Amino acid sequence: MPRHEIRPGRAVAGLVMLTLAAGYAADAAGSWNASWTFFAPVFLGGLWLAATVTWMSYRLRRRRQARRTSAENETTPPGRSSGGPAGTP
After folding, report:
1. Has residue 59 been placed in a domain?
2. What is the pTM of this model?
3. What is the b/e burial string over 12-28, where b = at least 16 CB atoms within 10 angstroms of the residue's CB?
4. Which of 21, 80, 83, 88 lies 20 to 30 Å (CA to CA) from residue 6?
């Protein structure tokens, strides 16, 4: 059992921020000459990608939970029919 919930959107956002930090560091060191117009779309695109991944993982988690709940409700205890109160045949 995992100790915490996996959050792929946060992982994507973290990777994008690390990439931006590396780009800024390379620009500051002089080994790469990039303008700010490169970093703005990468930042916004990374946030959009992280939000999309978060939304997709949320939908997948909800669908999986609904299937699990549905499967649990389909099983009936022995000796009971699936319809009607317990005392009726």
Report:
1. yes
2. 0.65
3. bbeebeeeeeeeeeebe
4. 21
